[in-house]
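Practice problem 4.
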């Protein structure tokens, strides 16, 4: 028998009581999540230092503050989000009440990855709680210290009959997915996303897939190359490059490549010193397997900057690969490490064509002084998000949806988009028992007169058009 049948059933029983639908319950659980972040701050810092030597600054910025902002934003706006949304009515329903009610799906499964092991389970959890669901959280076993912390401490803050944490690896996740959930939220790689989607399809369960891909970054000839380098190095090396929205490769002209390389070298030295291995501000690769995978990509093109590795520390230096070919290994998979390949192209049109020949990424970046060129790249490419003259920063805006398209994902979240993701929009029409004379127009026996009257009350006419003679 599946070991999680009882757990899922108990959460469904709790949800069916209706307790999670109450605004008071949602507020209390969001406030409890906020207390978890405040009271467990030091253990969180310690766990992430253990998992990947993540700098305190980066943990604060990407794991704690972002989640706290989501909690506070939800608390500030929950009452307005929960309100029924009135809609336009036709002539027949003018005396009736029509609205959209945002209802919780029920029992939700959130599966998180290892690279941002707190952010990427708690931010969707905020949306699931705000929408009134019961939730099972499955953190990644690869970030083992953070997984242990979440499993041992988070349940004491949330109501145990409505929320649960399940630990383990692929076998446990497979068994979890055999159960019927009302919604699934998965963050990870496309290959596993397909497995999750197939499992969801067996129960016709709706889902969100937050995946990844190779995020291109076009650097125009007319750019402030030192500013470009600073922002590229920060985006590529934050969390040692283990970020799904990091710039994955650069597209630029051969001339710009040669000018950009010394600027990138200066940025790396300024950020991490002459020996980045000794910097307290540079994280490590999460596991031996990931270290070996990223190290194998260093044979692409030529190592123009960095390239040093230390297997014992799982250290890979901030590295720039120049003259990389589209067929090289570094261009065949998402890098997920502090390695930045540069592929030369003769023009922005060639860069756009290069991007469009590949799977649609989670983000497209462009650096250019010319705003028309920026707009050109924006209008002629497709991606989950877009950033001009910076990297990663688009995902810090709680007012923007975060998600992919095609191979990089399905659905979005952050802020109100999280609430919407975990809410079913229920169409509601409340009518009177009277006024049957008006309703009789739609009943058999039909007639031309009835048809004319009914159509006149239902028909929508196009407005604001004119005919050129």
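Answer key:
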């Amino acid at each position: 028998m599946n070991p999680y049948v009882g757990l899922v059933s108990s959460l469904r029983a709790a949800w069916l009581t209706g307790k999670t639908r109450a605004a008071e319950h949602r507020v209390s659980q969001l406030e409890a999540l906020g207390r978890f972040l405040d009271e467990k701050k030091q253990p969180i810092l310690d766990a992430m230092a253990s998992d990947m030597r993540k700098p305190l600054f980066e943990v604060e910025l990407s794991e704690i503050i972002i989640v706290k902002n989501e909690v506070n934003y939800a608390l500030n706006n929950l009452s307005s989000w929960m309100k029924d949304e009135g809609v336009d009515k036709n002539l027949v329903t003018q005396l009736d009440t029509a609205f959209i009610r945002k209802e919780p799906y029920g029992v939700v499964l959130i599966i998180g990855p290892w690279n941002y092991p707190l952010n990427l389970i708690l931010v969707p959890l905020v949306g699931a709680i705000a929408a009134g669901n019961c939730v099972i959280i499955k953190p990644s076993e690869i970030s083992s210290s953070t997984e242990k912390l979440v499993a041992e401490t988070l349940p004491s803050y949330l109501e145990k009959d409505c929320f649960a944490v399940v630990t383990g690896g692929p076998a446990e996740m497979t068994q979890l997915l055999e159960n019927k959930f009302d919604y699934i939220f998965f963050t990870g790689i496309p290959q596993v996303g397909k497995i999750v989607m197939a499992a969801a399809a067996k129960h016709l369960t709706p889902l969100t897939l937050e995946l990844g891909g190779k995020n291109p970054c076009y650097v125009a000839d007319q750019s402030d190359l030192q500013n470009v380098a600073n922002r590229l190095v920060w985006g590529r090396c934050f969390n040692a490059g283990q970020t799904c929205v990091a710039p994955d490769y650069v597209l630029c002209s051969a001339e710009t490549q040669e000018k950009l390389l010394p600027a990138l070298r200066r940025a790396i030295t300024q950020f991490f010193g002459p020996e980045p291995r000794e910097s307290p501000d540079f994280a490590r690769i999460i596991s031996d397997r990931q270290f070996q995978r990223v190290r194998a990509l260093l044979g692409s093109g030529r190592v123009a900057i960095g390239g040093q590795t230390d297997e014992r520390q799982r250290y890979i230096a901030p590295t720039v690969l120049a003259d990389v070919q589209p067929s090289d290994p570094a261009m065949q998979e998402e890098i997920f490490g502090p390695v930045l390949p540069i592929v030369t192209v003769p023009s922005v049109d060639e860069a756009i064509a290069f991007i469009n020949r590949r799977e649609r990424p989670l983000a497209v970046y462009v650096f250019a002084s010319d705003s028309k060129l920026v707009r050109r790249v924006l209008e002629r490419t497709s991606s989950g998000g877009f950033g001009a003259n910076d990297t990663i920063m688009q995902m810090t805006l709680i007012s923007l949806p975060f998600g992919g398209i095609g191979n990089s994902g399905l659905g979005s979240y952050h802020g109100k988009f999280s609430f919407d993701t975990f809410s079913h929009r229920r169409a509601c029409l409340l009518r009177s028992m009277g006024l049957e004379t008006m309703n009789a127009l739609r009943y058999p026996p039909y007639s031309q007169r009835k048809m004319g009257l009914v159509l006149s009350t239902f028909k929508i006419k196009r407005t604001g058009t004119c005919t050129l003679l």
